[in-house]
Specification:
The chain has 6 helices and 8 strands. The protein is an alpha+beta fold. Strands 6-5-4-3-2-7 form a 6-stranded antiparallel sheet, with helices on one face. The chain has a two-stranded antiparallel ribbon with strand order 1-8. The chain is elongated.
């Protein structure tokens, strides 16, 4: 009986750790969010001087636009009045998009850390231990939000930068929580106190269910906000499909790409042949 209960508790500890890790990362909505099927191979920087798209691999590697003017790999590109108007629209749409992406990312981080706080408060024993773990959790939460504020919050989108920072922060916190739950499980199992083992097991199972319910509800709300951005990404794609200018190699400027990857992805409206 003791071995079975200990094994169950250890399994729950790992399951809870995984549950805490995934929501925080899954709710980190990015500009090239897979749920829309749109991606950008570029890092993006938005400031008062304009918008710059940069990448290390592929051509063009540097694209800068502002007020209807365009530079590609440090060379000014002549555009028509109609394309200048489209470039202004493109710039305005990107400027409006990033703050909303940052807001969703912040809320996703808050949801994930709130769930981890619930686990911590459930399993921490004693006021001193609880206070120490909460302070550590709050520092990591604040750092995760600061990472978003210093990047997306300032109009800077870099591939992997936000997710890597969050993964590091969440990973450390999950490690603390899993360690705490596991330690409690082992201590209870080794003590031979079956009542304590049963109580801890019941607490873990109840917590698992309550967190699943809360995360599902929060995740659905965040998901709806993310989906609301999809038409705006589609609008960017449609604008770039209407550009009449061509790059030096004769190709069209493609800052956002579309990949249909499942049946739930909204159908992409193809541009008129005349605009190609």
């Amino acid at each position: 009986m003791r071995k079975t209960s200990a094994t169950t508790l250890l399994g729950l500890a790992l399951a809870l750790g995984l549950a805490m890790a995934l929501p925080a990362q899954a709710r980190t909505i990015q500009v090239d969010d897979d749920s829309c099927g749109y991606r950008t191979p570029y890092d993006v920087r938005v400031d008062a001087s304009g918008i710059r798209f940069q990448r290390e691999d592929g051509k063009p590697g540097d694209v800068f636009m502002h007020d209807g003017q365009l530079r590609v790999d440090d060379r000014a590109l002549a555009v028509s009045a109609a394309d200048a108007a489209r470039l202004r629209q493109y710039e305005d749409k990107v400027r409006a998009l990033l703050p909303e992406v940052a807001g969703i990312a912040r809320d996703g981080v808050d949801v994930g850390f709130a769930a981890m706080r619930t686990v911590l408060m459930t399993f921490a024993e004693g006021e001193g231990e609880r206070r120490k773990l909460v302070e550590r959790l709050d520092r990591r939460h604040a750092q995760a939000r600061a990472d978003i504020d210093s990047t997306l919050g300032r109009g800077i989108w870099k591939h992997g930068a936000v997710s890597e920072a969050l993964t590091d922060s969440v990973g450390e916190t999950v490690g603390d929580l899993v360690g705490k739950v596991t330690a409690s499980a082992v201590t209870a199992a080794l003590s031979g106190d079956q009542a304590k083992v049963a109580a801890l097991e019941a607490r873990a199972q109840s917590l698992d269910k309550s967190i699943d319910k809360e995360m599902d509800a929060q995740g659905e709300r965040l998901g709806e906000r993310a989906k609301a951005l999809c038409p705006r990404l589609q609008a960017l794609d449609q604008l770039q499909q209407q550009f009449q200018f061509r790059l030096a190699d004769g190709s069209r400027l493609q800052l956002v790409t579309y990949e249909k990857h499942n049946d739930k992805t909204p159908a992409k409206q193809e541009p008129d042949v005349a605009s190609r």
